[in-house]
């Protein structure tokens, strides 16, 4: 989820659930090895458990990045073999790597050899282009598992490498959850996590009858309050916060510290626009926190003013 699950969103998500496993946006190896490490890798300890998702196809570069991730305190390194974007393909990584299971296996082995105490996992699709048969993904998983990968996050759609945009690739290829269920039956010793088109907790509970875990992406971003029920429903733990106002008050120290450090409020505000989705005042909340004029030099008082718009008046008249 490029440009979405940055550290500002992840801190926000952690205010909703202390147990859900969080993933960074996909970061290519070159950005880490030759770019600004602080910008790409920095995170707050509150975000753990946290996985660094990497894009790359050179085993040596990925191994170096995995070691860096371990040294920085990440809990997992996840290799993205699922992104269908043509920009990603031009760098020879993402979903196009499903056509090269041996290379993926070499990448996994290189990363596993480089680290001591963190997991190396793979996120992938069930196939590419017009390859529709289950054997393809079964053989891919089997081959990569032999290199030491024990956890596979499976987006239950094919990736169409040419002709569809990334958005269309999330909507047009049909979901085949049964393929993912079959992977778990064929590889009971592996951890199989399902992804793709999952939007509510009832569906999550149903999937968990067949696989080990569920990954939710855009729904958790666009309707983030759904995460507030995760700890109680799936981990048997008390919820972190009971109301949206609780969540924002929990975010306040982080936001004010970031503002003091010079971070513009807009960097954080864009991630919380969906908090009041479906609630009274949601439109006003979104409008105020996406208004460039209001956000210019804004501080916590703008968030308080936006929250005030979500309080339904005791008496309303026409």
UniProtKB/TrEMBL annotation:
<feature type="active site" description="Proton donor">
    <location>
        <position position="83"/>
    </location>
</feature>
<feature type="binding site">
    <location>
        <begin position="217"/>
        <end position="218"/>
    </location>
    <ligand>
        <name>FMN</name>
    </ligand>
</feature>
<dbReference type="InterPro" id="IPR035587">
    <property type="entry name" value="DUS-like_FMN-bd"/>
</dbReference>
<feature type="site" description="Interacts with tRNA">
    <location>
        <position position="80"/>
    </location>
</feature>
<feature type="site" description="Interacts with tRNA; defines subfamily-specific binding signature">
    <location>
        <position position="167"/>
    </location>
</feature>
<feature type="domain" description="DUS-like FMN-binding">
    <location>
        <begin position="1"/>
        <end position="299"/>
    </location>
</feature>
<keyword id="KW-0547">Nucleotide-binding</keyword>
<feature type="binding site">
    <location>
        <position position="123"/>
    </location>
    <ligand>
        <name>FMN</name>
    </ligand>
</feature>
<dbReference type="InterPro" id="IPR013785">
    <property type="entry name" value="Aldolase_TIM"/>
</dbReference>
<dbReference type="GO" id="GO:0050660">
    <property type="term" value="F:flavin adenine dinucleotide binding"/>
</dbReference>
<keyword id="KW-0521">NADP</keyword>
<feature type="site" description="Interacts with tRNA; defines subfamily-specific binding signature">
    <location>
        <position position="286"/>
    </location>
</feature>
<comment type="similarity">
    <text>Belongs to the Dus family. DusA subfamily.</text>
</comment>
<feature type="binding site">
    <location>
        <position position="53"/>
    </location>
    <ligand>
        <name>FMN</name>
    </ligand>
</feature>
<dbReference type="GO" id="GO:0102264">
    <property type="term" value="F:tRNA-dihydrouridine20 synthase activity"/>
</dbReference>
<dbReference type="Pfam" id="PF01207">
    <property type="entry name" value="Dus"/>
</dbReference>
<dbReference type="InterPro" id="IPR018517">
    <property type="entry name" value="tRNA_hU_synthase_CS"/>
</dbReference>
<feature type="binding site">
    <location>
        <position position="155"/>
    </location>
    <ligand>
        <name>FMN</name>
    </ligand>
</feature>
<comment type="similarity">
    <text>Belongs to the dus family.</text>
</comment>
<keyword id="KW-0285">Flavoprotein</keyword>
<dbReference type="GO" id="GO:0010181">
    <property type="term" value="F:FMN binding"/>
</dbReference>
<dbReference type="GO" id="GO:0000049">
    <property type="term" value="F:tRNA binding"/>
</dbReference>
<feature type="site" description="Interacts with tRNA; defines subfamily-specific binding signature">
    <location>
        <position position="283"/>
    </location>
</feature>
<protein>
    <recommendedName>
        <fullName>tRNA-dihydrouridine(20/20a) synthase</fullName>
        <ecNumber>1.3.1.91</ecNumber>
    </recommendedName>
</protein>
<comment type="function">
    <text>Catalyzes the synthesis of 5,6-dihydrouridine (D), a modified base found in the D-loop of most tRNAs, via the reduction of the C5-C6 double bond in target uridines. Specifically modifies U20 and U20a in tRNAs.</text>
</comment>
<dbReference type="InterPro" id="IPR004653">
    <property type="entry name" value="DusA"/>
</dbReference>
<feature type="site" description="Interacts with tRNA">
    <location>
        <position position="170"/>
    </location>
</feature>
<keyword id="KW-0560">Oxidoreductase</keyword>
<dbReference type="InterPro" id="IPR001269">
    <property type="entry name" value="DUS_fam"/>
</dbReference>
<keyword id="KW-0820">tRNA-binding</keyword>
<keyword id="KW-0694">RNA-binding</keyword>
<keyword id="KW-0288">FMN</keyword>
<feature type="binding site">
    <location>
        <begin position="195"/>
        <end position="197"/>
    </location>
    <ligand>
        <name>FMN</name>
    </ligand>
</feature>
<keyword id="KW-0819">tRNA processing</keyword>
């Amino acid at each position: 989820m490029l440009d979405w699950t940055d550290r500002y969103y992840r801190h926000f998500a952690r205010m909703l659930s202390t147990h859900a496993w969080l993933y960074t946006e996909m970061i290519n190896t070159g950005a880490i090895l030759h770019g600004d490490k602080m910008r790409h890798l920095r995170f707050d300890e509150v975000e753990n458990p946290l996985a660094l998702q990497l894009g790359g196809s050179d085993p040596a570069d990925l191994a170096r990045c995995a070691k860096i991730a371990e040294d920085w305190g990440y809990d997992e390194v996840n290799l993205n073999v699922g992104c269908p974007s043509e920009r990603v393909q031009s760098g020879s990584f993402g979903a196009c790597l499903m056509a090269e299971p041996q290379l993926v296996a070499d990448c996994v082995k290189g990363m596993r050899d480089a680290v001591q105490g963190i997991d190396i996992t793979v996120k992938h699709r069930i196939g590419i282009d017009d390859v529709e048969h289950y054997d393809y993904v079964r053989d891919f998983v089997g081959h990569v598992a032999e290199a030491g990968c024990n956890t596979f996050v499976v987006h239950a759609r094919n990736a169409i490498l040419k002709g569809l945009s990334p958005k269309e690739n999330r909507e047009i290829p049909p979901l085949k959850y049964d393929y993912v269920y079959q992977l778990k039956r064929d590889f009971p010793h592996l951890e199989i996590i399902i992804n793709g088109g999952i939007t509510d907790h009832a569906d999550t509970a149903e999937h968990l009858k067949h696989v080990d875990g569920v990954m939710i992406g855009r729904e958790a971003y666009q309707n983030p309050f759904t995460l507030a029920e995760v700890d109680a429903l799936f981990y048997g733990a008390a919820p972190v916060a009971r109301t949206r106002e609780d969540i924002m008050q929990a975010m306040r120290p982080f936001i004010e510290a970031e503002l003091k450090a010079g971070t513009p409020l807009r960097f954080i505000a864009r991630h919380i626009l969906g908090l009041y989705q479906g609630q009274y005042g949601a439109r006003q909340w979104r409008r105020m926190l996406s208004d460039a004029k209001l956000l210019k030099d804004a501080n916590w008082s703008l968030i308080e003013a936006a929250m005030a718009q979500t309080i339904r008046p005791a008496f309303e008249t026409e």
